[in-house]
Amino acid sequence: MRYLTFALTKGRLASKTLEMLEKLGITCEEMKDKNSRKLIFVNEELKLKFFLAKGPDVPTYVEYGAADIGVVGRDTIVEEGRKVHEVLDLGFGKCRMCVCGHETARELLNRHELIRVATKYPKIAKEYFYNKKHQTVEIIKMHGSIELAPIVGLSEVIVDIVETGSTLRENGLVVLEEVCPLSARMIVNPVSMRMENERIKELIQNLRKLLQEGNEKDAH
Ligand code: PRP
């Protein structure tokens, strides 16, 4: 049997994924050692390999088949636009992609003015403003702390992730429009999907069952 390789998004998404897999009896003891400098972890018994990567690199590893399976936020999947199959909504990492800014910017949006939009997600922003709203804007690609942009006058609005909303609140900004809901997704390499169909399908089914049980528990 060949190894199935997982690319996980470093940080909270990886921890949550490992928690879920552990419930299915898929463990990786090696990975829990915080002092380890190892980059790839193996479960010999189940013939699985795991590695951690930066979010935007996860779809790249999966498209090229360096990983069979990836776990990454939907924001990153849409923004990267790689050829991968999105197979499952894992239900965690829930947040929203939003247009945010000062309350005063609402008027500019409504009047379809030529405003500047700062974002880490130029493709998502372009798709939203150009194709959905048919509004011409200037998109400025940034790399982090996007909320700064309207505060210092770089842009009128931002397109960014809102989770609890506390970053916005603490900086006097508000959600002006919602672009789309987000959460962690499982993606699969199209060739792996065909070659390792049984193993991957079983994994997806088991995860789906686990998610359903979780939902039923929440409903009670
Ligand atoms: C994300 C996002 C917001 C914040 C939203 O930033 O870009 O800044 O989290 O979360 P909240 O609604 O719970 O406050 P992240 O911490 O990933 O870092 P970044 O600023 O470098 O993008």
Describe the structure.
The chain is α/β, with parallel strands linked by helices and 220 residues long. Helices cover 37% and strands 28% of the residues. It is built from nine helices and eleven strands. The protein has a six-stranded mixed sheet. The model has no long low-confidence stretch (mean pLDDT 95). The structure holds 1-O-pyrophosphono-5-O-phosphono-alpha-D-ribofuranose. 1-O-pyrophosphono-5-O-phosphono-alpha-D-ribofuranose binds next to strand 9 and helix 7.
List the SSEs and their pairings.
Elements: E1 4-9, H1 12-23, E2 40-43, E3 48-53, H2 58-63, E4 69-73, H3 74-80, E5 85-89, E6 95-101, H4 105-110, E7 116-119, H5 122-132, E8 138-141, H6 148-152, E9 157-162, H7 166-170, E10 174-182, E11 184-188, H8 190-195, H9 197-219
Parallel strand pairs: 1-3, 1-4, 7-8, 7-9
Antiparallel strand pairs: 2-3, 4-11, 5-11, 6-9, 6-10
Residues 144-147, 160-167 line the site of 1-O-pyrophosphono-5-O-phosphono-alpha-D-ribofuranose (PRP).
